[in-house]
Amino acid sequence: MKGGEAIRLSRVRRSRAAVAVLYAVILILAAAFFRLQVLGSGSYELQSRNNRLRPIPIPAARGAVHDRNGELLAESIPGYSLSLLPAPPDSARATLERLAPYLILAPEGIEAILERRSRNPQLPVLVRDDLTFEQVAAVEERRPEFRLVVIETHPRRRYPAGATVAHVIGYVGEISEGELDSDEFVEYEAGRIVGKQGIERSYESLLAGSAGTRYVEVNARGSIVREFASDLARAAEPGTDLILTLDLGLQQFADSIFPSDDVGGVVALDPRTGEVLLLYSRPSFDPNLFVGGISEADWAAIRDDPGEPILNRAAGALYPPGSTWKLVLATLGIRQGTVGIDTYMPTSCRGALQFGRRPFRCWKTEGHGPLDLSGAIKESCNVYFYQLGLRLGLDPLLSGVDGLGFNQATGIDIPGEISGRFPPSRDWFDRRYGRRGWTESVVLNLSIGQGETEQTLLRMAQFYSALATGEVPVVPHLLQSEALQQVREDWSLDLPEARRRELVSGLVRVVNEPGGTAYWHRPREWTLAGKTGTAQNPHGEPHSWFVGFAPANDPRIVIAAIVENGHPDNRTSRAVPFATQVVSRYLQSEGIPPDRAIEAPAPIPVPGVSELAGEAQ
Amino acid sequence: MRRERSSAFRGLGDPVLLGGALLLALLGIGMIWSAGQVDLPSGVTGAWQRQLVWLVIALLAFAVVTRVPMRWLEWATPWIYAFSIFLLLAVLVVGGGPSTRSWLRFAGFSFQPAELAKLATILLLARMLGSRKEPYTSLFELWRPVVAVVVPFLLVMAQPDLGSALIFVIILVSALFWAGTPLFTIFMLISPGVSLVLGFSSAVWGVWFVVVVVGLYLRRPFMAEAVAVALGNLAAGALASPLWNRLAPYQQRRLLVFLDPDVDPRGAGWHLIQSKVAIGSGGVTGQGFGMGPQKRLAFLPEQHTDFIFSVVGEELGLIGVLVLLLLLAWFLRRVLRVAAESTQGYGSLVAFCFFAVLFGHLVINIGMTVGLMPVTGLPLAFISYGGSFLLTTFVGVALVCRVAYET
Question: What CATH code is carried by the domain that includes residue A482?
Answer without folding.
Answer: 3.40.710.10
